[in-house]
């Protein structure tokens, strides 16, 4: 893995219901370079391409990410194909994504270093949503 130098790093994600796993991922991404760009999935992209409905709209998720000290720039992720263009446009030297995507973005290795980082165990937005539903159901039954 790369030593931290004057390098631009990019990562992609939805970042809905921000949690400690997200923060740890962003911190590890930023530690790889001097500038972190987060490509944030738009609501339309999440719905049409990922079949996900976000709790928080894009503008709120973007505002939250922009307030995190590890993040230097937030750009919209509008389609799967934009990654090559983003790497070139922003001078990205390191592409980082969770290891659940291992191998999927190896085609970018021609342009930059590709790093697959392990996710934080026991936490995800899917888990968080299930916990909220369970707690809401318990509360409404009381």
Q: Would you give an account of this structure?
A:
By secondary structure, the protein is an alpha/beta fold. It has one domain: HUPs (Rossmann fold). Helices cover 37% and strands 21% of the residues. Strands 3-2-1-4-5 form a five-stranded parallel sheet, sandwiched between helices. Helix 1 (20-31) links the parallel strand 1 and strand 2. The protein is globular, with a radius of gyration of 16 Å. It starts with 7 loop residues before the first strand and ends with a helix. The model has no long low-confidence stretch (mean pLDDT 91).
What's the total helix number? 5
Query: Which structural class matches the secondary elements?
Result: alpha/beta
Q: Can you give the mean pLDDT?
A: 91
Order of helices and strands: EHEHHEHEEH
Total domain modules: 1
Can you tell me the residue ranges where pLDDT is under 50 for at least 5 consecutive residues? Answer: none
Q: Which bin fits the share of residues in helices? A: 25-40%
- DSSP summary, beta strand count: 5
**In the CATH hierarchy, what is the class?**
Alpha Beta
Q: What quaternary form is this?
A: single chain
Strand order of the largest sheet: 3-2-1-4-5
Silhouette? globular
Tell me the β content. 15-25%
- CATH superfamily (homologous) name: HUPs
Radius of gyration: 16 Å
CATH topology: Rossmann fold
Known CATH architecture: 3-Layer(aba) Sandwich
């Amino acid at each position: 893995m790369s030593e931290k130098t004057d390098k631009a790093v990019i990562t992609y994600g939805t970042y809905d219901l921000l949690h400690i796993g997200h923060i740890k991922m962003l911190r590890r991404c930023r530690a790889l370079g001097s500038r972190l760009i987060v490509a944030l999935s738009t609501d339309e992209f999440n719905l049409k391409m990922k079949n996900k409905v976000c709790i928080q709209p894009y503008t709120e998720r973007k505002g939250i990410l922009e307030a995190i000290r590890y993040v230097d720039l937030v750009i919209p992720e509008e389609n799967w194909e934009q990654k090559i263009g983003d790497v070139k446009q922003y001078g990205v030297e390191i592409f980082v994504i969770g290891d659940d995507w291992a191998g999927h973005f190896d085609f970018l290795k021609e342009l930059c270093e590709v790093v697959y980082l392990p996710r934080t165990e026991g936490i995800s937005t899917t888990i968080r949503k299930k916990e909220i539903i369970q707690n809401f159901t318990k509360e409404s039954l009381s």
